[in-house]
Amino acid sequence: MNSGNHAPSKSGGFGRACVEFLVIVALIVGCAYLLRTYVITPYEVPSGSMETTIMSDDRIFSEKISYYSRSVQVGDIVTFDDPEVDGRTLVKRVVATGGQTVDLVDGVVYVDGEAAFEPYTNGQQSYPLSTAADVTVEYPYTVPEGYIWVMGDNRGNSADSRYFGAVPVSSVTGHVCFIYWPFQHFGPIS
Description:
The chain folds into 2 domains: 9-38; 42-188, Umud Fragment, subunit A (Ribbon), CATH 2.10.109.10. By secondary structure, the chain is an alpha+beta fold. The chain has 3 helices and 12 strands. It is elongated, with a radius of gyration of 24 Å. The termini are far apart.
């Protein structure tokens, strides 16, 4: 008696389950790649150059979406490609953008002739640094168009634009928006 119904073979069911599993894994990996490449990237901060806003060993999220609709602005905390070490990402605060003039006078940062309001430095003075090889920074310094001037909030412990000069906006990889670890630092960054 042949009713036309066949029982599924055990080997066919196992093979199908393996294919389904591999497709699901590929979708998850693909979504994670797209999320990390175009939306948000996690970083661990290895130094104290942004203390006390971001502490050494904090883990942060740097989002990319806001820069699809607006340009980098003064006050933004950004991640960007290290101008000296390939493959390394730095995190600093934007102090000036293209066309603005930065000056350091008696430990105070001036942007376009006005003292910058910088409560996040906790009163630390901002002095010029010896520059990296092949870099010249003379004050007052006018930031070239398409570049930004970045500084760490911990001015006494930050190799920043005072050291390596202005950085191209094209090297910015995201806007730091959130500390996710450790839990006592958990929350948005402003």
